[in-house]
């Protein structure tokens, strides 16, 4: 005699009510965008609009790096730390860039801050 456990479980009124109530709850779950607030919501909305790097933290490829045409580094502040991988070495040369003051790395590349709007 094989027991049909599913049939037995569904005959229990309390369990049957729990299963039907849980199915109703799953249909009423809100969209994740409705649940988030504050800065997280602003970041998600910016990403949906196509701004995938609102804080300007993506890797920037070095340009020509001459004194007349330096590599521009975006910043919403008066200064920013920049790391330069000099001549394909294994180390990173970090330097502090300040507004209106181009700086030359040890490898000879020039960098300059470019003012951008802060993400808020």
UniProtKB/TrEMBL annotation:
Tagged with keyword Zinc: yes
GO MF annotation: an example: metal ion binding
Protein name in UniProt: Uncharacterized protein
Superkingdom to which the source organism belongs: Eukaryota
The keyword Zinc belongs to this UniProt entry's keyword annotation: yes
Keyword tags: Metal-binding, Zinc
Binding site for Zn(2+): 84, 86, 105, 107
Gene Ontology annotations for the cellular component aspect, listed alphabetically: mitochondrial envelope; respiratory chain complex IV
One Gene Ontology term from the biological process aspect of the record: mitochondrial electron transport, cytochrome c to oxygen
């Amino acid at each position: 005699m094989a027991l049909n456990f599913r049939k037995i479980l569904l005959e229990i009124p309390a369990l049957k009510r729990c299963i039907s109530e849980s199915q109703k709850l799953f249909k009423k779950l809100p969209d994740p965008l409705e649940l988030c607030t504050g800065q997280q919501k602003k970041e998600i909305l910016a990403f949906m609009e196509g701004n995938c790097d609102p804080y300007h933290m993506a890797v920037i490829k070095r340009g020509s790096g001459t004194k007349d045409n330096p590599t521009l580094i975006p910043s919403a502040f008066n200064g920013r730390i920049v790391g330069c991988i000099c001549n394909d070495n294994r180390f990173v040369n970090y330097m502090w860039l300040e507004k209106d003051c181009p700086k030359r790395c040890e490898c000879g590349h020039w960098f300059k801050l470019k003012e951008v709007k802060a993400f808020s």
